[in-house]
Amino acid sequence: MAVLLRKSRGALQFVKTRPGLPGILNSRIFSCSSYHCKSNNTSRNGYTLHSSFLGLPGYSVRFQASLHSKALQLEDHDYSVNDQDWDFPGGKVPFTTKIKFTADSSEDRIHCYRILDSSGHQILSNTSEMISKELAVKLYSSMVTLQMLDTIFNEAQRQGRISFYITSYGEEAVNIASAAALSNDDVILPQYREHGVLLWRGFSLQEFANQLFGNRADYGKGRQMPIHYGSNKLNYITVSSPLATQIPQAVGVAYSLKMEKKDACVVTYFGDGSSSEGDFHAGLNFAAVLDAPVIFFCRNNGWAISTPITDQFRSDGIAAKGQAYGIPSIRVDGNDVLAVYDAVRKAREMAIKEQRPVLIEALTYRVGHHSTSDDSTKYRALEEIEHWKTARNPIFRYRNWVERQGWWNEEQETELRKSVRKQLMNAIQVAEQLDTPPLTDLFTDVYHDMPSNLKEQERSLKETIKKHPQDYPSGFVV
Amino acid sequence: MAMRRIGSSSGPNNLFNICRGLSTTTPWLGSPDETKILRNGTTKSMNLFTAINQALHIALDSDPRSYVFGEDVGFGGVFRCTTGLAHRFGKQRVFNTPLCEQGIVGFGIGLAAMGNRAIAEIQFADYIYPAFDQIVNEAAKFRYRSGNQFNCGGLTIRAPYGAVGHGGHYHSQSPEAFFCHVPGIKVVIPRSPREAKGLLLSCIRDPNPVVFFEPKWLYRLAVEEVPEDDYMLPLSQAEVIREGSDITLVGWGAQLAVMEQACADAQKDGISCELIDLKTLIPWDKETVEASVQKTGRLLISHEAPVTGGFAAEISASLVERCFLRLEAPIARVCGLDTPFPLVFEPFYMPTKNKILDAIKATVNY
Ligand SMILES: Cc1ncc(C[n+]2csc(CCOP(=O)(O)OP(=O)(O)O)c2C)c(N)n1
Ligand SMILES: [Mg+2]
């Protein structure tokens, strides 16, 4: 007992003398003897933390100033007695004698930016400087390609040729127009319903098919389920199924771009459902505090599998949350190609020029089932799906506009569809015939170098295969 | 506001005992044979997800202070386990949560701490990790750290686990070993529909937080005669599901079906295997396993999770401690490989029947 006691006291003493901890252990957390004081006044984080503990009036960090990491200037601080407001970390806080809670949301919902009306008529007139004929046509043909790609791969899944598929039906404008407003140097951290971004960047139909079939040419070496694309060349970080995990990661990527003074930003995509995960909140807060050039792009498509957004949150969507974290945010009509393009273009400019995060909430609709494992008619009205599929279809709407510009016609449409169809069928055929990845790919890349336990397991597996070849699919090079 | 407690000692005002009172009328089934002597005795052929669904119906029906919640449970869940519950018991007791696993478990802990039965669904075991902190640091220590003033014993976390043939990294994992390293929670895995129903009801009514992993490969595949009644199967009690004399095999969940085939094939070669379903991984029934190994002198453990640091390692170490002098061969482990769960390589990753059979032979002929 005595020994134990002495031991534990020894441990306490050890902890006490460790630098960095005294602030906690000797209860001088509110005094200047903590390590914060060692930092000079230009260390923003250290100083802010220290001052907020003190709760001292008289210095100001403007709300916006946090965006620029400006050194605090002590001379500006006002230490005079003032009962109108408090200089509190973050800016002046005025006093009031009225007891009043903030509303749960503003009366007016955050407005939704659009350029084209529902029938594709232009509401804003000055699009000509924004978009050339060439770009306009490429936007259109890419959306059609994306939709056809989805239709044919989805069909391939129905026929049992691939095990799983996810379409982006209804979200073609979100996918293509957001990608078009970026540079290929901008790094993408996707969720999983953004393969249109890859398509725009030049991922070939063959490359798509290779991933879906998990063949030898799949960059992911057949290890992940279909639709988990990734391309180092195209700055598209490989899809991971766990939701929202990419959001704080995107901030780290953005911070790196910032430190390297790159003329590029990060875009991370996620759904309305994912915005409920802790990682979403961590990511937004980190980005705001670290002034990271990242665009948070939320595809608010109304549903997370069977869960409607009314079961997901009670805020005014996602845009309101961006603002709460101190991030400039915009809501955009996700089925309006031009509006999405314009919003992302401006967001990119802000993110890079001002070195700060921006949030975009695109209102859209998941027209397809969640995935090939889902039947969405079990939980939502057919009329609802139909309405978004037809009356609010982003492709129809945009086609009206490009046709009205005289940049597109029926003949081009037929030609495009014929050619894309042919390419897709060909891609599937080729992908199907390519070999599976070699067996050794099961063991590589777990680590940078293969450790001995895996070498041993590979050897023993090969013996098992030799002994029981009937247990294993053919086509694998052992 | 004081939190009501359940599951502490035996005072007459103890809420848990009041809740438990509901279940004292239900028979505990010691072995599958006993299911036949249930009072009205009716059984029905059903698959595993239907058996789970039935257990949830019974849990909600027999205790008005029980709740079922999680992602997409409102419409019946992506595996249909919660079908019909919201309709029957209302949206206040059966509901969709926001998409947030840490929220689901944290919410469940609070609900349970107030004396309710919180039955939380995590859509896939692969997505339980955001809730790891809530489970490991909170649920598991809620009772201990408060000196038993508070507990969240009414919490049960259900999660489908394991391979399905095409799940890749994130729809296939068997994360049980992580949770077996955590004193304060129980980990239970059923092997069949009848087991699933009886064990799940026990977990829901157990005065400790439980993680209940459901073998999703068997949701539709496994069909069995299941008693229609409310019944419970004991926790921390393993079951010898095949008697033998040459070697003991220990497993749980979906892997037992594979092991069973290996035992049958070994029989053809004249090797008599004893197969044990562990059912509860912590706290586990060492005595049943020890008794078997004392008889056979040999032990093989098999699970889908990677071999390194898997629960087989714990069983193996414990049995060496208890049966060192009786062992006639090294303890064999036939498990998943030390890689992430792969998609196209799944058949190679899996602890197959023939891998087990080879290991049985090697152990017996050691
Ligand atoms: C951490 C985690 N929990 C649960 C899931 C299962 N899951 C896959 S997609 C999905 C819904 C996502 O909805 P949303 O973010 O709105 O994206 P959408 O499918 O609408 O594009 C769920 C619950 C998951 N992949 N990861
Ligand atoms: Mg969604």
Automatic annotation (TrEMBL), chain A:
Keywords: Metal-binding, Mitochondrion, Oxidoreductase, Potassium, Transit peptide
Compartmental location: Mitochondrion matrix
EC numbers, comma separated: 1.2.4.4
Required cofactor(s): thiamine diphosphate
Biological process per Gene Ontology, one example term: branched-chain amino acid catabolic process
Pfam families hit by this protein: E1_dh
Keyword Oxidoreductase attributed: yes
One GO CC annotation: mitochondrial matrix
Residues annotated as domain Dehydrogenase E1 component: 141-437
Catalytic activity: N(6)-[(R)-lipoyl]-L-lysyl-[protein] + 3-methyl-2-oxobutanoate + H(+) = N(6)-[(R)-S(8)-2-methylpropanoyldihydrolipoyl]-L-lysyl-[protein] + CO2
Subunit structure and binding partners: Heterotetramer of alpha and beta chains.
UniProt similarity note: Belongs to the BCKDHA family.
PANTHER family: 2-OXOISOVALERATE DEHYDROGENASE SUBUNIT ALPHA, MITOCHONDRIAL
Name of the featured protein: 3-methyl-2-oxobutanoate dehydrogenase (2-methylpropanoyl-transferring)
Organism: Heracleum sosnowskyi
TrEMBL record, chain B:
InterPro entries assigned to the protein according to its UniProt record, in alphabetical order: THDP-binding (IPR029061), Transketo_C/PFOR_II (IPR009014), Transketolase-like_Pyr-bd (IPR005475), Transketolase_C (IPR033248)
Protein's cellular compartments: Mitochondrion matrix
GO cellular component: mitochondrial matrix
GO molecular function: branched-chain 2-oxo acid dehydrogenase activity
Gene3D superfamilies registered for this protein in UniProt: 3.40.50.920, 3.40.50.970
EC number: 1.2.4.4
Cofactor: thiamine diphosphate
Subunit structure of this chain's protein: Heterotetramer of alpha and beta chains.
Name under which the protein is recorded: 3-methyl-2-oxobutanoate dehydrogenase (2-methylpropanoyl-transferring)
